[in-house]
Automatic annotation (TrEMBL):
This is Calpain catalytic domain-containing protein. GO terms for biological process: proteolysis. The keyword Hydrolase applies. Residues 1-80 form the Calpain catalytic domain. One of its GO terms (molecular function) is calcium-dependent cysteine-type endopeptidase activity. It comes from Allacma fusca. PANTHER family: CALPAIN (PTHR10183), CALPAIN-5 (PTHR10183:SF379).
Length: 88
């Protein structure tokens, strides 16, 4: 993920987008935060996130909410960029 490829969805999540962009500039950090390194056929992924200074392990799935045009409402990579999706 390149910092310049992260775009905001229709939600007011600019705080999230700026955080993802900052982390994206450090590939070694991305590898430490995304514990599931391969595509999971079941769509389950394990991440490490820090909230209020406390690190937590979080399990997420790959089911993403979309708008009426079938576009993700959360942060995403720029159109036409083929990279792992940051929406997870």
């Amino acid at each position: 993920i390149s910092p310049s490829n992260v775009t905001q969805g229709s939600l007011g999540d600019c705080w999230f987008v700026s955080s993802i962009s900052a982390v994206a500039s450090k590939p070694e950090l991305v590898r430490k935060l995304i514990l599931t390194q391969e595509v999971d056929p079941a769509g389950v992924y394990i991440l490490r996130l820090c909230k209020d200074g406390v690190w937590k392990t979080v399990i997420v799935d790959d089911l993403l909410p979309c708008d009426e045009f079938n576009c993700p409402v959360f942060a995403q990579v720029s159109q036409g960029i083929v990279e792992p999706d940051i929406s997870l």
